[in-house]
Amino acid sequence: MDLTDSKYWKSLINIGFTKILVLKALSGGANHGYGILKELKSITSGCCTPTLGTIYPILKELTKQGYAKVSVKPQLKGAQKRQVYTLTAAGFKAYQAALEA
């Protein structure tokens, strides 16, 4: 970690900002990774839209820490099952704390 490297700071800011946006997307109800990505694209008007490679680690972290829960939902015939994420009560509190900050 090089604190003089602007790429480090940009990455840190993007991850933190994206985490807040993921919490915002999930505060509206259950959603899957691609659905969250589409919502974030809409929220940011296409500017600063994260990738699935950024969203999924955040979802995994939120789930591991108890801020979200994941369930598997069946899809159309032959399609893969979809993981759907929902905020827990702690997740809603985290989102409110982020908004207040």
Question: What can you tell me about this protein's structure?
Answer:
There is one protein chain. With 101 residues, this protein is an alpha+beta fold. The chain is built from 4 helices and 3 strands. It has helices at residues 6-27, 33-43, 52-64, 89-100; strands at residues 31-32, 68-73, 82-87. The chain has a 3-stranded antiparallel beta sheet with strand order 1-3-2. Helix 1 crosses helix 2. It is globular. The mean pLDDT is 88.
Record the SSE blueprint:
Layout: H1 6-27, E1 31-32, H2 33-43, H3 52-64, E2 68-73, E3 82-87, H4 89-100
Features:
about 100 residues, globular, alpha+beta, 4 helices, single chain, 3 strands, 3-stranded antiparallel β-sheet
Give a short overview.
The chain has 101 residues and is of the alpha+beta class.
Q: Give a count of the beta strands, DSSP E runs of length 2 or more.
A: 3
Give the H and E element order: HEHHEEH
Could you give the order of strands across the largest sheet? 1-3-2
Oligomeric nature of the chains: single chain
Major β-sheet profile? 3 strands, antiparallel
Beta content comes to 5-15%
Number of helices: 4
Radius of gyration computed on alpha carbons: 15 Å
Structural class: alpha+beta
Helix content: 55-70%
Shape: globular
Distance between the termini: 26 Å
Instruction: Report the uncertain regions.
Output: none
